[in-house]
């Protein structure tokens, strides 16, 4: 058990040093299984189409040492499961992290639940589950508003940008609107939303948000550009002139 505790301490030390998986190698292990220890290697996943070949992390890494601690008898408690999922998350292995968080949701003690939902949310975002990302972040906010409420605007912007990259202008505007409602005094948000509204031919909304930029920051560095855009879009809003009969 002393050896298991030592491996656990090494694992947390490597985690704090951000050495999650280290330099990954390809190794051959007959009848090996992913997410297990084999000698001085942690078998991450099989190499597709290659029998008995695995991508593996060396022993001087967080994931190896935590797995070794469990293999040598330390209880696979909720905090160890949480740490293992966090290793995968921080290494950008979002699919595995997302699955791990889902499996331990009911095991996390009350004092760690806000942090758990925060990390679970990051994993959900990593696998493209945008609505779930926001839902999980809101769970964290309910449990610790002071710590996680300030993250909500950035979360809305991240989701908005995903929709923007996907070419979904309506959803892009929807989530920019949510960000603006959360932080109505932020000029940069109104600027983004105004530009998006112009792209959607919503000229009145574009003018309103650009004007808000200037109201909030009268000396905005793009003041002249915005004044020109406001005038241009107001002209677009004007009804066509009628010829006298």
Number of helices: 12
The profile of the biggest β sheet is: 4 strands, antiparallel
Placed side by side, the strands forming the largest sheet appear as 1-4-3-2
Distance from N terminus to C terminus (CA atoms, Å) equals 98 Å
SSE arrangement, N to C = HEEEEHHHHHHHHHHH
What's the count of strands? 4
Q: What's the assembly state of these chains? A: single chain
Strand content: 5-15%
| CATH first level of the largest domain | Mainly Alpha
Question: Could you give a quick summary of the protein structure above?
Answer:
This protein has 245 residues and is an alpha+beta fold. The protein is built from 12 helices and 4 strands; from the N terminus they run H-E-E-E-E-H-H-H-H-H-H-H-H-H-H-H. It folds into 3 domains: 1-75, no CATH class; 77-142, Serine Threonine Protein Phosphatase 5, Tetratricopeptide repeat, CATH 1.25.40; 144-237, Tetratricopeptide repeat domain (Serine Threonine Protein Phosphatase 5, Tetratricopeptide repeat, Alpha Horseshoe).
């Amino acid at each position: 058990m002393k050896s298991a505790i030592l491996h656990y301490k090494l694992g947390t030390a490597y985690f704090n040093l951000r050495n999650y998986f280290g330099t990954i190698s390809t190794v051959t292990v007959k009848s090996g299984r992913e997410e297990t220890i084999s000698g001085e290697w942690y078998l991450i996943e099989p190499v597709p189409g290659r029998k008995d070949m695995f991508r593996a992390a060396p022993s001087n890494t967080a994931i190896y040492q935590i797995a070794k601690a469990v293999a040598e008898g330390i209880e696979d408690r909720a905090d160890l499961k949480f740490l293992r999922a966090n290793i995968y998350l921080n290494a950008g292995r979002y699919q595995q992290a997302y699955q791990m968080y889902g499996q331990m949701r009911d095991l996390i003690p009350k004092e760690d639940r806000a942090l758990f939902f925060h990390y679970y949310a990051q994993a959900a975002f990593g696998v493209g589950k945008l609505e779930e990302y926001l839902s999980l972040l809101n769970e964290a906010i309910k449990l610790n508003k002071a710590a996680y409420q300030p993250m909500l605007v950035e979360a809305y912007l991240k989701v908005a940008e995903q929709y923007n990259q996907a070419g979904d202008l309506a959803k892009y505007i929807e989530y920019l609107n949510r960000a603006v409602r959360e932080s109505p005094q932020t000029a940069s948000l109104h600027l983004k939303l105004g530009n998006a509204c112009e792209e959607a031919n919503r000229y009145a909304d574009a003018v309103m948000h650009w004007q808000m930029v200037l109201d909030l920051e009268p000396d905005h560095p793009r003041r002249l550009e915005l004044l020109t855009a406001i005038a241009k879009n107001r002209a677009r809003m004007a009804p066509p002139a009628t010829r006298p009969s």
